[in-house]
Amino acid sequence: MILYGRNPVLEAIRGRRAVLRAWVARERDIAALPADLDATIVSAEEIERLCSSPDHQGLACEAGDYPYSEANELLAADDALLVAIDEVQDPRNLGAICRSAECAGASGVVMPERRSAQITPTVCRASAGAVEHLAIARVRNLADYLGHAKQAGAWIYGADAKAAVPYTQPDYRGRVVLVLGSEGKGLRKRVADSCDQLVSVPIKGRIDSLNVSAVAAVLLYEAVRQRTN
């Protein structure tokens, strides 16, 4: 996997997977890399050719496969805070959700194995490297996983723009899973039915919806606020 962009590359080096070699467009950027990492100075055009993106900021690296976590292990802590995403397909949305989850100190993110964006270089770039430190798990069936989470003592809250319950009403302390639906379609029926409660974020403007990554940030930081207080 060829990662690109300053933060994704540097966080990959600090993270859990092997970084095999790097390419830099400016000699001074080599100082930011470990001395034992094989780093080559090349043109910016060569880096763009390697990573197929102009958004490389003069830095790219070859990294090992992404180390997905075991989904059930993410529920181990009594105060586990998870984000479950139901077929979010835009890699930039997935990256932004992961960035918010990591910054909020979430225990991890759970997503389906199919019909969902996976951890790609674009996701790494959109997350600013947050995926390198965040536990991310894939499950075969998200509704079944939510059922397992309930059995483990978790409360499940799904985001639904039409829900009558405001997002500030639930108690997000303890073991909690926040569930977000796909772009446009929202939560699938079986996933929504697996939630203990559906909540909404108020819309006061002229358009009728928030981006799913924005909703994720709102819910996560309401949970952080409650847990901090």
Q: Explain this structure to me?
A:
- β5, α3 (91-103) and β6 form a beta-alpha-beta unit.
- α3 (91-103) runs parallel beside α7.
- Helix content is 30%, strand content 21%.
- The model has no long low-confidence stretch (mean pLDDT 93).
- It has helices spanning 6-14, 44-51, 91-103, 121-126, 142-151, 189-193, 212-228; strands at residues 2-4, 19-24, 38-41, 59-63, 81-85, 108-112, 136-139, 155-159, 165-166, 176-180, 197-200.
- The protein has 229 residues and is α/β, with parallel strands linked by helices.
Low-confidence stretches: none
- Give the ordered list of helices and strands: EHEEHEEHEHEHEEEHEH
Find the structural class using helix and strand composition: alpha/beta
- What helical percentage do the residues reach? 25-40%
Mean pLDDT: 93
Biggest sheet, in brief?
7 strands, parallel
DSSP strand tally: 11
Distance between the termini: 41 Å
CA radius of gyration is 19 Å
Principal-axes geometry comes out as elongated
Percent of sequence in beta strands: 15-25%
Total of DSSP H or I helical runs spanning 4+ residues: 7
Strand order of the largest sheet: 7-6-5-10-8-11-9
